[in-house]
Amino acid sequence: MEALKVHKKGLMQQLFPQEGETQPRLRFPEFEGVGEWEEVRLNSLGDLVSGLTYSPSDVREEGLLVLRSSNIQGGKIDLTDCVYVDPNIKGANLSQPNDIFVCVRNGSTALIGKTALIPNEMPLCTHGAFMTVFRSHTPKFVFQLFQTSRYQKQVAGDLGATINSINGAQFLRYKFLVPKPPEQQRIAECLTSLDNLIAAATRKLDMLKTHKRGLMQQLFPQVGEGNA
User: Fold this and answer.
1) CATH code, residues 41-175
2) In this model, does residue 228 exceed pLDDT 60?
């Protein structure tokens, strides 16, 4: 799994232009010689969807799922820790498949800017006020843009001027170099397939850890028990 992560990191450094460059060092054969990428602001690639402000009295045992920063784990949506509110609550913008879920405010600076794609199989949900959703016509490519060093540097620059938060208007002014749509799609397909391999390897590792833990409990006496 770690080898796959290292491979993806190295590949991204080749597939996206480095600082001071206007085209990547590695291109798929069909795009060689096509030319430089264009610098655009994020607002040309999509729009922000604001989060829900809710109070403890709005929380329910079940109802409308509210995604929070704890639901982003390793670039994926994790539903281990869930909060629900009244489905009829006012001000809830429902998330859609392939929305990009972004943490824009948190007590931990390490979480600011973290992202995850909303999968197709997600239950009906919205997101909390400390989060935002970026809704794009090219979500899988933009999601990969959000994994680049260019994105991370712009997030870090915002944190130097504010208190553990990204301002929405400033976020939409972030600048990125992008190719034409066909090359965007090709890059997104390649990197998404790697993400899927990493996710599958992570699930397998988690299953093995769970199996080992159960086996150890059977093989060795627990506190207060006799011999196995």
Assistant:
1) 3.90.220.20
2) no
Instruction: Give the span between the Cα atoms of 114 and 152, in whole angstroms.
Output: 9
Sign of CA dihedral 135, 27, 174, 72: positive
**113 CB-side CA count, 13 A:** 23
Write phi, then psi, for 46 (nearest 5 degrees): 165, -165
Phi, psi of 35 (to 5 degrees): 120, -170
- Give the pLDDT band (50/70/90) at residue 200: confident
85 touches 56 (CB < 8 A) = no
CB 144 within 8 A of CB 186: no
pLDDT score of 191 more than 60: yes
Q: Rounded to whole angstroms, how far apart are CA atoms 205 and 191?
A: 21
pTM of the model: 0.86
How far is it, in rounded angstroms, from Cα 47 to Cα 49? 7
- DSSP three-state, residue 64: strand
Pairing of the two strands 100-103 and 131-136 = antiparallel
Contacts of 122 (CB under 8 A, 6+ apart): 77, 95, 97
Tell me the domain boundaries of the chain.
1-37+179-219, 41-175
